[in-house]
Amino acid sequence: MRKRNLLIFTLVVVLVTAMSAPVFAGSQENKKTHKDKVYAAKKGSISVDTRLRIREDRAHVRVRVNQGAAKKTTLYTTVYLLKSSKGHWTTVARWTGRANGRTLNLNRKRKIVKGRYMVKSVSTVRSGRGSDTLVDYSKERSCRKR
What we know:
This protein has 146 residues and is α+β, with helices and mostly antiparallel strands. It is built from 2 helices and 8 strands. The chain has helices spanning 2-20, 34-43, and strands spanning 47-55, 58-66, 73-85, 88-100, 103-111, 115-127, 130-137, 141-143. Strands 3, 4, 6, 7 and 8 form a 5-stranded antiparallel beta sheet that branches. The protein has a 3-stranded antiparallel beta sheet with strand order 1-2-5. The longest helix is centred in the N-terminal third of the chain and has 19 residues, at 2-20. It is elongated.
């Protein structure tokens, strides 16, 4: 029961933190490079690859969460499709995923309208040794179709 309560508390903290963190177009977090992701992955037990592809009027979102250390782990991710509007990013869609083991793959599609988009993922690895959380962003992409 204690482990269950701790897990629920951790999930609530991660989700509240992710939803309350402002995301701005000029944010330093938004300027991550592949090198930054590799450094973060080596620093902890989690690596995240967040991608956005736009074809016609559809956004194709892919998030892959990997951890290579512990065998008994639970992976969580919350993914946000963001649209640029008047210099700020607003959430268009939100998805969550959960998996037991070493890998979590989340693939989603969404019909979109003309504008600039990117994807933000907040991913957590939970094991007997604790938890690691990593926030990752895709590259910005444009939809030219109305």
